[in-house]
Amino acid sequence: MSTPFYVSPQQAMADRAEYARKGIARGRSVVVLQYTDGVLFVAENPSRALHKVSEIYDRIAFAAVGKYNEFENLRIGGVRYADLRGYTYDRDDVTARGLANVYAQTLGTIFSSAAEKPYEVELIVAEVGPGPEDDQIYRLPHDGSIVDEHGSVAVGGNADQISSYLDQRHRDGMTLAEALKLAVESLTRDNNGGERTLTAEQLEVAVLDRTRPQQRKFKRLLGRQLSRLLEGHATDVSVDESEEAAPGPGADEAPGAS
Amino acid sequence: MEANTRSIGRLPAAFLTPGSSSFMDFLGTHQPDLLPGNRQLPPLKGAVEAPHGTTIVAASFPGGVVLAGDRRATMGNVIAQRDIEKVFPADEYSAVGIAGTAGLAVEMVKLFQLELEHFEKVEGVQLSLEGKANRLSTMIRSNLGMAMQGLAVVPLFAGWDVDRNKGRIFSYDVTGGRSEEHGFAATGSGSVFARGALKKLFRENLTEDQTTTLVVQALYDAADDDSATGGPDLARRIYPIVTVITDEGFRKLTDAQCAEVVRAIHERRLQEPDGPRAALL
Predict the structure, then answer these.
(1) Annotated catalytic sites of B, by residue?
(2) pLDDT at residue number A238
(3) A257: chain B residues, CB-CB within 8 Å
(4) What pLDDT, on a 0 to 100 scale, did the predictor assign at position A149?
(5) What was the ipTM of the complex prediction?
(6) Which InterPro entries match (chain B) (predicted)?
């Protein structure tokens, strides 16, 4: 029997990291921005059914890029974690920090375990607080590290370029329409400095809106409401005034919550 | 892997295993001790004394459905609580009202709400109204052992069916038997009296405001004849819980709105204690 080649741990990790990064870089980016009333998620995603941005719990949402089956798996794991924790204790005991930690541990274990291939995913976990200063945004790269982000963040293919574009232009106290405009601008710039146009149909947009009366603050922006926002007509329109409210968001009180 | 949600570590394998979109199924495989149906009752001599919720009524109107409940919980001949809430939103388009053992019922509602929310988050779409009603059936059936020992939970489920564009009402028995009610329904100890009132006053073409008045009239009549049902407590300003579900979703009447309906009815009852009279023919 022949002896296996020696590969240094540094080299092995570097190879795994490169493998994961390449996978992630193939996908289109997702950007997450804070605005006055909450946190905005924008992704380039022509699919209406396969989401890159999703609700996890009352004030917590999830965005991901990379391999769909892998991040979908993590998303469902997160929903199960959050629902079980809220059921065992209280809805207030489910936090983005806790969820981000669990994701970090999970990704970290997978990344450093020789038996598994590293996940080709990068996640964002965000929680909207009572005020803008209480919002939390965590970025979780493939290797299980956690980065605490503020203002704006991008993950995916052109993340570095988009992030620096956003960093220069994002400011506190933007309205939803301003933040959305900036997010779309950042996504439409491609590598060579040229610009594409993205229509409402190619975008997946969702918000965690702290002003929503419901307990669940997550809401998708769809159809006419999104088009209106993109055209900049509805700068002051609150998210909930749309006639095409997404089915879903729920209960404004739970029996255990009062 | 060990069931561990309390400390922070890697997500256990069960969390990442592809499976059903049901939270109850997940609990059943991952932490079965948390499912109310798996609880073992010690052998009992007599009936267990625990607070009971009493009367829930529902009525539909062309644009939706109204679900309401009184506020009294009783334990034997004692009033255990004067301001209990027995009507809850199940999700955006449905509500559930509960009669029976209050503690178990509230727990069942909490799990039912979570079940619907979990499905919606995992699948990205809501269950059909029929699906929600069936899910509630399963939960009641899992409580059958306790029901046999006197700890029954009998809910009333009402919601807006977005596929059929109408409000629908489902009633249940302790074995989980489910039946769709047309027009109106009532459950709990005061339900016989409430149903009599509903039967006399219900019309197919009532408005939303008329329907909320109707259900409060029915609760008034239930409280009039059933000692376990609480009437509107004008002195303490405790009014029935009245909820409305339309194509715009679930809405609960504010205290002020309820007070208005209750006071109007009360004023009339001071002149006519038996309430409005239906035509003889």
Answers:
(1) 54
(2) 53
(3) none
(4) 95
(5) 0.89
(6) Ntn_hydrolases_N, Pept_T1A_subB, Proteasome_sua/b, Proteasome_suB-type, PSB_actinobac
Angstrom distances, CA of residue A20 to CA of A114, A147, A148, A156, B83: 14, 18, 21, 11, 57
How far apart CA A148 and CA A139 sit, in angstroms, is 6
Q: Give pLDDT, residue A51.
A: 95
Which residues in chain A touch residue B162, judged by CB atoms under 8 angstroms apart? 247
The whole-angstrom separation of Cα B221 and Cα B273 is 10
pLDDT at A257 over 70: no
Count of H helices and E strands in chain B?
8, 13
Look at B90 and A251 and tell me if their CB atoms are within 8 Å.
Answer: yes
From B137, B91, B97, select the one nearest B114 (Cα to Cα): B91
User: Hunting for tokens 């009493």 — which residue is that?
Assistant: B54
Whether A113 contacts A107, CB under 8 Å: no
Within 8 A of A86 by CB-CB distance, chain B residues are 114
Contact A76 B122 (CB under 8 A): yes
Sign, CA torsion A87/A89/A95/A100: negative
**Token representation of residue A85:** 């924790």
pLDDT digits (tens, 9 = 90+) for B83-133: 999 999 999 999 999 999 999 999 999 999 999 999 999 999 999 999 999
pTM for the model stands at 0.90
Are the C-beta atoms of B29 and B175 separated by less than 8 Å? no
For the domain A27-243, what is the CATH code?
3.60.20.10
Cβ atoms of residues B171 and B136 within 8 Å:
no
Interface contact A250, partner B, CB < 8 A: yes
Specify which residues B153 forms β-bridges with: B100
* CB-based contact, A51 to chain B, within 8 Å: yes
For residue B249, the SS3 value is: strand
pLDDT averaged over chain B?
Answer: 92
Only one residue has tokens 């997946």, namely A204
Nearest to A162 by CA among A36, A27, A51: A27
Count of beta carbons in the 10 Å neighbourhood of residue A245? 17
Q: Which long-range contacts (CB under 8 A, 24 or more apart) does B145-152 make?
A: B145/B37, B145/B41, B146/B39, B146/B41, B146/B101, B146/B104, B147/B174, B147/B175, B149/B41, B149/B44, B149/B47, B149/B48, B150/B47, B150/B48, B151/B48, B151/B50, B151/B100, B151/B101, B151/B104, B152/B100, B152/B101
Structure tokens at A19: 């493998």
Contacts of A82 (CB under 8 A, 6+ apart): A56, A57, A60, A94, A99
- Greatest Cα pair distance, chain B, in angstroms, is 72
pLDDT value, residue A19: 93
Q: How many CB atoms neighbour CB A50 within 10 A? A: 11
**Which chain B residue is nearest to residue A101, measuring alpha carbons?**
B8
R_g (Cα) of chain B, nearest Å: 20
pLDDT of residue A242: 46
